[in-house]
Design goal:
Layout lengths: L1 H11 L7 H23 L9 H24 L1 H4 L5 H10 L1 H8 L2 H4 L27 H11 L1 H26 L13 H9 L12 H56 L10 E5 L2 H19 L3 H4 L9 E7 L2 E10 L4 E9 L8 H15 L4 E7 L3 H6 L3 E9 L4 E8 L1
Parallel strand pairs: 4-5
Antiparallel strand pairs: 1-2, 2-3, 3-4, 5-7, 6-7
Helix pairs in contact: 1-3, 2-3, 8-11, 9-10, 9-11
Amino acid sequence: MNAKRQRIFEVIQIGRRRDKLSRAFDFALVTAIILNILALILETFSSLSAYLPLFHAVEYVTVAFFIVEYVLRLWTAKELYDELSSGRAALKFALSADGIIELLTILPFFFLTGFAAFRLLRVVRIFHLFKINNEYDSFHVIISVLIRQKNQLFSSVFIILILIFAASLCMYSVEHDAQPDVFENAFSGIWYSLNTVFTVGYGDIYPVTVLGRIMGAVITILGVLAVAVPTGIISAGFVEEYGRMSGKEEKEKKAEAESAKAAKSRKKKVDPAALELVRAETLAERACAYYVRIEGMARQHGITADKEFDEHDGEGTKYIVLKESGFPVATCRFYPLDGNMYMIGRVVVLPAYRGSGVGRRTVEEAEKWIAELGGEKCILDARDSAVGFYETMGYVPDYNRITYGEIFTCIRVEKTL
């Protein structure tokens, strides 16, 4: 059952090029969304009333497709939130932004007769299918820019609001006597201010006095300048974000190259089977694991201690340590998730011992210990550059589970013991 559920999850998620069935589902979903919206629009044309039965049939079929998709996503939510039980995973998906949007694409058809506009929310799902590239998706970049520039954006929006209210009050002062019905009170000028500041120019409200027209021209110029401020902030934010990502990539490549060069110069010939393998139970043994993580990962990549050591470094977490002549050279940790699943992480090998099979033996020992504890499945968030290594150990990558960190991009890999 789990294998069947996992396969359905892979199909209804965003498809990879090599997964033809999943990509076919993506195509069917986009087609259904477009047909549903098209039918909704064409229903409003009185000249096409003769085709209403056809439009209704299209809507029935596409809504049925959405219902089946929604049920499948609830059923496979366990694969998305593997640390939760099936019921809690389904509830978490139902309450997520994606789940709520999908539900709102279905409910209006049955209950919300007066809220047909909610059906247009289904178009939002189209954007789930597009990526800028294999590493950074567009929504991730947009959200990062907005969060990073939130203070500047707030200040610029506040300035625009002040301009709008000031313009409304000024126009009322000079136009009320000439157009008492149009500029009835101070807030009557807000509509005019919005049209002018944002250069929409509907022309339904306009000044007739000389002073009013002069003020309207000034407001228009100030509006263009004011609106240009947040635009420039966002544009600069995008340039900065892409520059940061490019810099991070270059820095990471340079660090890896330097690390590989340094490791090669002091590479040791090591027989992994000859190393002492320790299941860390004491404080001293756990300290060995921490030492390897600091020297082999945190110091190399500039990771601070509060980020390297998290809530999982505590009770219930098991550690594996490999030693040579009593000194630690490799480590990893694992802890239980929901059911019989375990999360392996913090797999670190000192530079001088990399490429000799030490990391493989460390992970294999963790898998052996997990099996002894009754575990049936291992999960690991692998660096994108290390996915190939874990595939040789029998792990299967899930490219729908990608984590974009400040330093690394990680891909979820899984293995059934």
